[in-house]
């Protein structure tokens, strides 16, 4: 499902605008020549394998890290020289965002409001508690909250100073599906109020809830756009196969010329490749087996990401059943 992006009323209304960002740690280039633009009011998903440079990019965007080369602005402020201004207008939820476990929900929010120098910390905390539906839990210790409620509290803390941009680094890692859904409803409510949200995630259902996404692998930005645009740009031909002995079949198919990805999805395999003629030729060969059912399919976002990752790793690296 693709969510319609907010209308671009003002083409100059860009929250993030960076060009050629590069960052190395020692000899390792972690972000390579990254160019991206994020319009205001958008929920922009940042996806990619572990260690591909997402956190490093986020840290450059909010002025916590200086790029080795490249330029750009965040909310119109220069990421190299205006870090203090950026920090004032950006809410950043780090991967290990932690609250004081032995303070209550209310005390945590009041504390954060004081750190931000808000004029009335108590009122700000009260308002955040109401907005996040935390009324019944206001006096509960943060350490006693479930993972989902902890993340909502963390989101509440990040939004206390009324930021224009939220940078959320894997905010729902390890959180159950219902709590993730509620967290995302909150993100959409914030975006509907005009907040721009850049969120990194490994979850496909979350990627599909973004207005636009970018896929970064090993420092390279390999795809960006709406979910439909990213899928269409992959030019993948995909078939699903069901039947017996799929593990052995996957092994065989993944070695065939033109097949760049074979991945199990539930009780079937997804078989993909970028050249329709080659994929169809391989499928035609196996279709003669009456025990197997082959159906053409739209590539899923996950198919596209697995394919992109395989190519980034240097060629056809099929995902085999584990
Ligand atoms: N301060 C640092 N010093 C040295 N290496 C670093 C530093 N920060 C990150 N790295 C390395 O840079 C690479 C990219 O890390 P980064 O955290 O940006 O990736 P990521 O895409 O956010 O990964 P994940 O999905 O696992 O969070 C990793 O190999 C990491 O070990």
Automatic annotation (TrEMBL):
Q: Does the keyword ATP-binding apply?
A: yes
Protein keywords = ATP-binding, Nucleotide-binding
InterPro entries linked? AAA+_ATPase, ABC_transporter-like_ATP-bd, ABC_transporter-like_CS, P-loop_NTPase
Does this entry carry the keyword Nucleotide-binding? yes
Q: Which GO terms describe its molecular function?
A: ATP binding
Q: Which Pfam families match?
A: ABC_tran (PF00005)
Q: Where is the ABC transporter domain?
A: 16-243
SUPFAM superfamilies named in the record:
P-loop containing nucleoside triphosphate hydrolases
Instruction: Spell out the CDD domains in the cross-references.
Output: ABC_DR_subfamily_A (cd03230)
Concerning its family, UniProt says: Belongs to the ABC transporter superfamily.
Know the name of this protein? Answer: ABC transporter ATP-binding protein
What is the source species?
Rhodoplanes tepidamans (Rhodoplanes cryptolactis)
